[in-house]
Design a protein that fits this description.
It is globular and about 40 Å long. The model has no long low-confidence stretch (mean pLDDT 78). It has one domain. By secondary structure, it is mostly helical. Helix content is 40%, strand content 0%. It contains four helices and no strands.
Length: 89
């Protein structure tokens, strides 16, 4: 699974999970800090981190799902994509 979802909407029922994204899709370092902070404030995720070690690998969802090389999935914002990748990673 993905650690965070970058989109403004969620790919699951927010009522079931108990989380709604704050703000729009992150594009700046501050936006990403807010998004990660939101996920890290989840008590179940905190318990999971406390219970066992994690082996974390890179995933594209932190920036844009299914992007390839330097091109976003939605080419409408290709100009700001490199800045967004820099902020996310």
């Amino acid at each position: 699974g993905d650690y965070i979802y970058e989109g403004g909407g969620l790919p699951f029922d927010a009522d079931v999970v108990g989380r709604e994204h704050l703000g729009d899709e992150p594009t700046t370092l501050d936006d990403y800090r807010i998004r990660y902070g939101q996920y890290k404030s989840d008590p179940l995720l905190q318990a999971s981190h406390a219970a066992c070690p994690w082996f974390v690998i890179w995933d594209d969802h932190e920036v844009e799902n299914n992007y390839a090389e330097g091109t976003p999935q939605d080419a409408a914002d290709a100009a700001g994509f490199q800045d967004r990748r820099f902020a996310a990673y």
